[in-house]
Every structure is written in C-alpha cells, then in structure tokens.
Amino acid sequence: MPRLPAISGRILIVDDDARQRAAMVAMLSDCDLDTQVASDGQEALERLAAFNADVVVTDLVMPRMDGFELLRQLRERGNLTPAIALTAFGSIEKALSVVHDLKAFWFLEKPVEPRAFKTLLERAIQYKRSLQKTDELKRDLSLRGVLGDLVGTSHAMQQIFTLIRQVAPTSAPVLICGESGTGKELVAREIHKYSPRSEGPFIAINAAALPEALIESELFGHEKGAFTGAMERSAGCFEQAHGGTLLLDEIGEMPPSTQPKLLRVLEDLRVRRLGGKHEIAVDARVLAATSQDLGTHLREELYYRLSVFQIVVPPLREHKEDIPPIAEVLLQNLNKKHGTRVTGLDAEVLDLLHGYDWPGNVRELRNILERAAIMAGSGLIRLADLPSPALGVSPGPYARPSRGDDGPIMLRPGQPLTKIEEAYIKLTLDHVRGNRKLAAEMLGISLRTLQNRIAELREEEKAAAPGS
User: N- to C-terminal Cα distance for the chain?
Assistant: First the structure.
C-alpha cells in the first residue's frame, strides 16, 4: 500500500464495530501516526479531553451517541478538528448533509479503501496545520505587532500582515513589490511559513544576480554535458522547491528569452533540464518580487500569471512610527550576533532616525544599527556611536576621542580624504582594542580590504615623512 507522506499526526477513529476499528488501525500501521479509537460519540468526547486529535474519523450510525451528535457537540464546543464521516453504501445524501450542515471535512463510503483513506487523512492533517498556522498568525498580530522577522504596529504594516494572513493558506502566486531594502523576501518567507507548505523547502533565486547564460540552468537544471562546464547533473530551483515555495526575486531582470519558458513551466508544472529529453513534474508555489515597475520588463501574460495576488511593501519613510519597534528587534538580533549588550536608543538618536528619509529602507537601518551597536558595546546607542557620516547629516564632532591625543574627528572643507580615512580607521581600531576582524565588520569592509588599506596608509605615511 502507498505510504502516507512523512507528516506527523494524531487520529481518533470512532466506530461501534470493533472489526472496522481494527481494520482501519491496521491500514495506518505503516504511517507515522498516533492512532486511538473509541466505540461511540460519548467515548470519543472523553478521549478528546486528553487526546488532541488532528483528525476525527467517525461512523454516523452508533448507539448511545451517533456521529451526527458527536459532530454537533464538537461544533458547539468550538472544536474545529476536521472530521471524516464514514457512511454505508447508498447513504451519500446523509454524508453530504453532514459535510454541509455540520461542517465535516469530507466523507468515505464503507468498506473503506486504503488509498483513498490515506489520501484524505493527509489532506485533513494539512488543513488542520493551516488552521493552526492562522491561529498563531492572529496571536502574533494582536499581541505584538510582530510577524516572524517583520515588525510594525503602523496601519501600513498591519495591512501587510492582513494580506499575508489571507493569502498564505492558498496556493495563489503572489507578486511582492517594494523598494530595495523594504523586506520583500521577509514577506515571502512569512507567506511560506504560514502556508500548508511550511514543512517543505523555501528556495530563493535573484534574477539580477545571475549571468543571463546561467539563469535557465539555475531555474530548470541541466544534464551532464549539456554545456561547457556541466560536469554533472544538477537540479534547478523548481525541482529543489518541490513541495515548498520558490521565490523569483527581481523578476523584472529575467531575460526576455527565458520568460516564455518560465511561463510554460508555471502553466504546465513540468520542467525539462537543459540537455534533458524528459519533462519532470514539479509542485512548487511561486512567489515573485520586484523593486521596479514591470511595465516594460515583463511579458504581459507572465505578469498576469505571477500577479494573481499583490502585496506592496511600503518604504520606511512612509511608516517611521515603526522605527522604534523595528530597531528593538534588530538590536536583539545584533546583540546575539556580536555579543554586545545594547539596551536601546538615546532620545537624540531616535530624533535623528525619525528625521531621515531612509533611501535604503530597513536594510540601511540595520546596517547603521549594527555599526552603532559594536561602537556602543552596551547600554544606549548615542550620537557618538553612529557611523560618520551617517543619516545624511554632516557628522561634526560625533566620534569618540581615541586613546591618543588626536581628539574627536573634525571635518573641515578641503581636508584630504586620506587623512579622514586614516583617522577613522585608527579610531575604530582603538575602540575595538585592535581587533581587525571586528573593525572590518564595523566599517562594512572585508578583513583583507582593511589590512591592505592599513598597509597602504603606512606606505603613504613613510613616503610623506621628511628625508624619505
């Protein structure tokens, strides 16, 4: 018999016929399921008081309490566990009335056919999982204004959360629009997280980051020898995302020659690897993201196929009231990453953050806070901890004095850039007690770049020395 996919679950089987109960339990013996039984509706209610079933499978005609009354009681108690009704041959009308009036998940005719039983159980368990995800989502939104890594109590962000809640349980394609750095991939990840596919893979591909010659191989895969350098068979993103979600980031950068092939895969749900002879069935929900107007970049039919549902992520400048809670979550994550103990933002820093237009959006905010958190180390982040220059403000004497006699970095018109750079590198190294790796992270450059620049500055200093 076909094995139920690897999905855990708890099943309660309710039937007054002991042989029927035993037969159904035996059908599920090769599945990863916790199965319990009850002889009638009354016993089922007693079992459910301690057994949190994902699915109830119940006969309709039983003594003491029949299946109709059991389902009615469950509805009255607010128990929304999906129920599968078992009905005798020829009693379809009764079964349909149970589905319609008592909101049963579906019905099965006796004698139960194993394959149909397992398939229906799988779908009912997935449905229960989606209900649980929706409940978690509602609790997150109502209690904290936080959805995974998305944060915001503003009306704009609450609308985004609502749209995610509506579309996540479906299989509809979603087009996520917004400026660079607004969190489009985070939105995609939350849609995946709260969908029935959450146990499957989440695969993201950025069309803007791949050479045109390689993008079809990344999407559809290739066979060994399909092109120069194809030393072995490789599965594409659609295959990798099978059973899960595929995000096509910066979809507007997709080459025109690839767009018809992508459209065909979306319509047929089949891919053919480069150099392959056979098509492969794929089952992946497709999300797309863009930071540009797609009007002249995407074929019309592909645009309509991808934009069944749209979510527009607002730029940070349009919901600045969310900066404090976003900063709080970012700082919690940065403390874990760097071992710092930053507790928040000074009032002057908050004023500065609110007065800035944030062209880089949340990504820019995170970058500034990361450097500032390393500078501060602990306590509140103050103006002196901000990178210089930062936030579009002429920095002035914001930087901390070094341990030498240089004092704060002061900017004057006409000052050589090398002197400013040298002073800032020295200041940063002094603050982190000579830890070059930490200094490189704070400066936003690689360790090798920092080491090379220090060597260059030393050579320039030697060349400028008298008598050299």
Answer: 86
Q: What is the pLDDT along the chain (468 residues), one digit of tens a residue?
A: 444 445 578 999 999 999 999 999 999 988 889 999 999 999 999 999 889 999 999 999 899 999 999 999 998 887 889 999 998 766 677 777 778 777 888 888 888 899 889 989 988 898 888 777 766 655 555 445 556 678 888 999 989 999 998 999 998 999 999 999 999 999 999 999 989 899 999 999 998 888 877 888 889 988 887 777 777 888 889 999 999 999 999 999 899 989 999 999 999 999 988 888 888 999 999 999 998 888 778 889 999 999 999 999 999 999 999 999 899 889 988 999 999 999 889 888 888 898 888 888 999 899 999 989 998 998 899 888 887 555 654 333 333 333 333 444 555 566 677 777 887 888 877 766 677 877 787 787 888 888 888 888 877 777 766 655
- The reply to whether 137 falls in a domain is no
| DSSP H stretches of helix in 339-406 | 347-354, 361-376
Task: List, in sequence order, every residue forming a beta bridge with 341; answer none if it has no partner.
Answer: 378
What lies within 8 Å, CB to CB, of 432 at 6+ separation is 374, 438, 439, 442
For 209, the 3-state DSSP assignment is: helix
CATH number for the domain harbouring residue 108: 3.40.50.2300
Q: Which domain covers residue 345, as residue numbers? A: 319-464
Look up tokens 């979306």; give the residue: 266
Domain boundary among 314, 337, 362: 314
- Tell me which H or E stretch contains 156: helix 155-167
Burial of 223 (0-12, 13-18, 19+ CB in 10 A): middle
As a whole number of angstroms, the distance between CA 100 and CA 345 comes to 56
Residues in Cβ contact with 37 at an 8 Å cutoff, skipping those fewer than 6 apart: 12, 13, 14, 15, 21, 25
Taking alpha carbons only, the member of 302, 321, 197, 328 closest to residue 248 is 302
360 token code pair: 């880089």
Of the residues 74, 104, 131, which one is the last residue of a structural domain? 131
Structural domain total, the chain: 3
The CATH number of whichever domain residue 376 belongs to comes to 1.10.8.60
Measured between alpha carbons, how far is 308 from 223 in angstroms, rounded to an integer?
A: 33
